[in-house]
Amino acid sequence: MTATGAPASEGAAPPTGTGPLSTGSAQGDASGTAARRGRRKLTPYWLLLPAGLWLALFFVAPFFYQASTSVQSGSLEDGFRVTWDFTNYSDALAMYGPHFLRSFLYAATATVLCLLIGYPLAYLIAFRAGRWRGLLLVMVIAPFFTSFLIRTLAWKTILSDAGPVVGVLKSLHVLDVTSQLGLTGDDRLLATPLAVVCGLTYNFLPFMILPLYSSLERIDLSLHEAARDLYATPATVFRKVTFPLSLPGVVAGTLLTFIPASGDYINAQLLGSPNTQMVGNAIQKQFLNVLDYPAAAAMSFILMAIILIAVSVYMRKAGTEELV
Amino acid sequence: MTTTGKHPGSPAATEDPAPPPRRTPARGGTSAPAPLRWLRRNAVVLAGVASLCYLLLPNAVVMLFSFNKPAGRFNYEWRMFSTDAWTDPCGVADMCGSLGLSLQIALLATVFATAFGTFAAFALARYRFRGKGTGNALIFLPMAMPEVVMGASLGTLFLNTRVAFGFVTILIAHIMFCLSFVVVAVKARVMSMDPRLEEAARDLYAGPLQTFLRVTLPLAAPGIAAGAMLSFALSFDDFIITQFNAGPSTVTFPMFVWGAAQRGVPVQVNVIGTAMFLIAVAVVLGGQIAAGRRRRRG
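YS: structure for the whole thing
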């Protein structure tokens, strides 16, 4: 909802930041003694304290524990000890290299698909919906109201071997083509990479649509008129005006889909096969089933590092650092 | 508006000077036959409606299959119409218990995350102070981290400090990841508020507390409500982080569904999914209609 609209407005912070509340001295009622001004100065810290402390304790501190765990060795019975054993990292990459590759490949594909599927809908809601705009927005958020595990299970029904989708695709010989490409096999959709990507695309589509919508909605329509007055065709208007102005939404949307998709293991588990497992599946298995915590920590650290690097490079390229 | 930098000046102004008028300025080609022209003009509408169908198809399937009477333990193939599951929604062992646990956790997580997040949002939106950049980054990072990384690392913390996994660890985790979303929602609202309204209140001799309660808080309320609703939805539906931080006896509803996906999915799961969907849509639509009516009257 408004969540995605917020970061972009960060650029407007300084003017509002200098509002009356932030400059106690400029106030007319500034009978401000030094003590009072001192207290004023501390106010933001007090306000930030609960959330900051919570995040420091349960978001930042865990990474230090994870870092130390990732260089431990030992076994569950004897206990793990820090031995600066970096083989956890090389082992993780050697054993689960394909998982990492698949994660980023599937997540990237799903992100592109989300952009292609989501853009028309965001455009429709922003410019063509008229009085249906509110209803359409509700319909975009509505799927969230059913637990996403239940909805992912519904894809099992939709894509099932005896289901209509497989039937239609089979009669159109589409499945022959996709199995040639290695996306499907044995006249099935379930347990194939295609099903996993389809599930990822579906699950994260609203995260693409909402930021796209919020940046499209802010576009001044008189710019469209101006472009048309200057003999731009509709395609040119889109290419030269609409799309460039929606780029902040594109950047936010791709981040909001790619990041969670690359760590997801639910779609790969429910819709995929052992051959479509992603790095999330590997971390989950090591942590919850094998109980090899150092291995899980090392993998999770690698995943985090790759994503942080990729995101910062991407955001520098896209030139929208004000998004943060 | 960083994007305008790539197109110096107004995008339209730098267009090639007067491209040959292949087409009349009126939209659409005049030469194409009528149906084709209609199709071209409404292509984006059709594509948008198609994506909306893609988005809503699973909900329709969940609803349809809540009336199924499956042959085996899995509810994946249609057999016959039945309302058995609707008349006996709690007929599956442990399911309604897990639902209650999820509601409890979601409610508590929402209360804490909304309170803490609102404070933080005011600090970040209204004040300038040393460390503000760090504060913003700290709030932003949890949203830029895959859930599996957060879940695994928090789980590692609890393992290392020998905290027993259970209700409290789940609650801690949920408050942690809901916080950022509340901050973002409230901050957006607070920054769009006109500070002169509060000045006016003080000019009219309202004390700081009175100004806050009668002016600031009502103005920020929509943002706070949005943050709270978002927290509730996120917490109620969270699976990945929960799985890494739950104990053996604390099975939330998503965890129940996950387990069921392995053992056999009862139809009642679809009933719950459908009921939640209908209730939430009714609440949201009701709110929108009420807001629209108020706007028309005011």
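YS: worth flagging: Residues 55 and 61 of chain A are 8 Å apart (CA to CA).
IM: good catch. Also Chain A touches chain B through 122 residues (CB under 8 Å).
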